[in-house]
Every structure is written in C-alpha cells, then in structure tokens.
Design a protein that fits this description.
Chain B: Belongs to the HisA/HisF family. Chain B: IGPS catalyzes the conversion of PRFAR and glutamine to IGP, AICAR and glutamate. The HisF subunit catalyzes the cyclization activity that produces IGP and AICAR from PRFAR using the ammonia provided by the HisH subunit. Chain B: It catalyses: 5-[(5-phospho-1-deoxy-D-ribulos-1-ylimino)methylamino]-1-(5-phospho-beta-D-ribosyl)imidazole-4-carboxamide + L-glutamine = D-erythro-1-(imidazol-4-yl)glycerol 3-phosphate + 5-amino-1-(5-phospho-beta-D-ribosyl)imidazole-4-carboxamide + L-glutamate + H(+). Chain B: Keywords: Amino-acid biosynthesis, Cytoplasm, Histidine biosynthesis, Lyase. Chain A is an alpha/beta fold and 200 residues long. Chain A is built from six helices and 13 strands. In chain A, strand 11 and strand 12 (164-172) form a beta hairpin. Chain B is α/β, with parallel strands linked by helices. Chain B has a single domain (6-246), classed as TIM Barrel (Alpha-Beta Barrel), CATH 3.20.20. Chain B contains ten helices and twelve strands. In chain B, strands 1-4-5-6-7-10-11-12 form an eight-stranded parallel beta barrel, surrounded by eight helices. In chain B, strand 4 (47-52), helix 2 (57-73) and strand 5 (78-81) form a beta-alpha-beta unit. The radius of gyration of chain B is 17 Å and the shape is globular. Classes of the chains: A alpha/beta (200), B alpha/beta (257). The interface between A and B is large, with 50 and 43 residues.
Chain lengths: 200, 257
Amino acid sequence: MIAILDYGSGNLRSAERAFAFSGQDVVVTSDANIAFEADGLVVPGVGAFAACMKGLNKINGAEIIRKRLESERPTLGICIGMQILFSLGDEHSQGVPHQGVGIWPGTVSALSAPILPHMGWNNVEAALGSQLFAGIDNESFYFVHSYAAKEPCGQMQSWTNYGERFLSALEDGYISATQFHPEKSGAAGLALIKNWSHSL
Amino acid sequence: MTLSIRIIACLDVTDGRVVKGVNFTNLVDAGDPVEMAALYGLEGADELTFLDISASSSGRETTLDIVRRTAEQVFIPLTVGGGVRTVEDVDRLLRAGADKVSINTSAIARPELIADIADRFGSQVLVLSVDARRARTDSGFEVTTHGGRQGTDMDALAWIEKACELGVGEILLNSMDADGTRAGYDIGMISAARAVSKVPLIASGGAGSLEDFASALDAGADALLAASVFHFGIHRIKDVKNFLKSHNYPIRTVATL
C-alpha cells in the first residue's frame, strides 16, 4: 500500500491517481500511523517552502519521514516534497533560511535564469544505474519551480539544466526525490512511478 | 538539455460542455470536456486549460466534477480558471485535481488576492489571465474583464508588471481582438508583454496557420494556447509540433513507454 501524505499541500488527487495507475492500493492520509506503516510514502507538494514545512510540522510529518528512513521504509518526495527534505530553504526567507526536514545537507536556493519559474517539460541526465529512470531514456518531465538544490548529495544524482545545473532527482537508499512532477509527466512519469512502486 | 515550448489546448467550459466563439460571443458547442481532454493528452498536448465560463454556481460545481474526472485519466498539467475569487476557491480546485489556477477579474478588483494565493500555494500555481485589447491607454493595450465584456481603462502592461511584483507565476495573455478569428496571434501585444515580465508567457487568441505559432514564439512567447483550431480539426496538435520541430523549435515528443 502506498500512502500519499496530506499535509495541506497541493495536487493530492493527481498524485493519488498516478500512483494508483501502477496497480498499487493508494490512500491519501494525514494519519501518522498509516503514513509510517505504508509500504511506500509519497510526500507531494505544491506550495511555498515555509508554508509546506508549517503544514508538515502540524501533522508531525518530519518525524514520520525520519522514522521511516530509520526503519528502512521507502519514501519519495516530489517537487516541494523534495526541497523540504534538505536542511534549509531560501524561498521568501529574507536572508534567514527556513528549516527543512534535514535528510540531506545544504540549502535549496533560487535558480538563476532570465525567466522564472522554470515551467514546462525538460530533459533529465539520469544517474548511471538509476532505478527510477530504468528503461526511460531521453524523455522529458514536467517541472514547475523557481528554487532547487544544486550541490551533489545522496548516493545517486540526476541533473537538469535551466540557467544552471540543478538536482532533478536523488536516489539515496530508502529515500528518493524528484524535483519534477512524475504524476504530471505523461507516459514517462507513469513509467518512473511504476519503477518506484515496483521496488517497494 | 532544453526546456521545450508548450502547446496548450484550451477548453472553454459552460454547464458541462466545451464551447467556442469568436471575440467571446456567438458560442457554439464543441464537445464533451473530459473526452476532449483525454484525446488532447494522447495527441501530445503539453498542458490543458479549462476556463469555466459558467455564470451559475451549479455550473461551477459541474466544472469541479469535470476537473476531477479529467484528473483521473489525464497525466499532464491542468490549469483551471474562471470564477476564482478566494484562496479557498484555489484550494478546492487543487484538491479536485487542478495543478494551476488562473485568475482575472477577481485580481483586478482585489490585487492582494495574488499575494494571498502565492503565499499559501507558491507563485507557480498562479496564472494571471489578461484579456487585453488594443485601446488608447499608455501602452496601447487595455485590460478587459467579464470575458471581454467590460473595459477597465487599465493599462495592460502596467497591470502585468504589478501582478508580477505581487507574485503571479505565469501570464496568459489573451488578445480580445484576435480571439477566435484565426487571423494570427497579436504579435505586438506578445512582444510588449514579454518586455515587461520575467515569468513565462502564454500567447492566446488568434491561432490560425502553422506559421502563426512560430511567429508568437519569435515574439517571445514560452507557450502557445489554442482552442478553436484544435476543436474544429483545422490542425492536430502533432501537426503544430511537427511544423515547429522542423523549424528547430524545442518540442516535447510524446513518450511511447
């Protein structure tokens, strides 16, 4: 069973339908026990960093994510759901970065490009041996964001270029994340979701 | 690696049906929104936009249901606009399956709504829909409201600049003069809007020939929205993409995984 974490952020129904497409049972939940016990936990996200952290803290979400990692239970962060896994976020921070969950070190910072947000379909330079991108070559995925992580961390990094290089996906043992929205990336996104779901 | 230009199919929905008119009047039935959304998704649309032009609250409920049913089977981004007045309206649409919402009249009446929505959901969720026409304002472009039925005397470019400062994530620029005419996008309007905004710009209104799509990109559009040429089979989405690809514009080809 896959749980989609409902912490007041975003396109939960899109995520629910896309993950159900992989053949797994899917629930949308803000219940800590269900989220902890699920075979796979998806941390989706549409929103601003601070607002998302506030929502996450309300349901003790950071603790759930850390406990799952300790218990070797897979978790996948999507978009802001990836960004909040880092230590700090610069979005609307007026110089004092917001605290993230802290799974990975580093600060999620503004992209440097003439037109922002980075919005639309872009390619991914997938990590060698990536499980998420297995069998998915030369496809584009849908991005909508103005901030990103830019320093390598975790075991496997995939990259995308928009103005500068940034991390478009991370695979790090039981925790993975994508900066793009696989649930909105057509057949390529559904294939990636299937890869993750079948690894649970 | 390059960001692809986006082809967006737009469905104007009222009381559960897709309609299309010329200059926002003389509406004719164009089909079932969920079926059309699914078809455009398969044909390679990079995004879908529903504009709810219903006047009644029952019409709005119907649209929510359409959004839900579309989100069940179409896995590309979905923008929904029309009648969005509050942060709660945005939440409701996102929970129904929308990925972005567009606002227009309500933001003109209450610009702080832009900042309220951006603070809660992030700028990337918010599309400012600007229905503009050529008129005697400072820039020569005026904002209209209520689906183009009312003038505002507001300068369209000044409004776009202000909305960008308040936190919109994207501009949907619809030419009221060109809407539904298939006589070409308003190229002057697109390049003027590009010059004052640093967020992605969607050109809308007037798409007719394949060359029209390329001209709008050359004028600075990041995405191209069209309705009637697709609804009435004048061009298929893949024809537009193939044409643009053959002229070296970056296009997403549809995955066959």
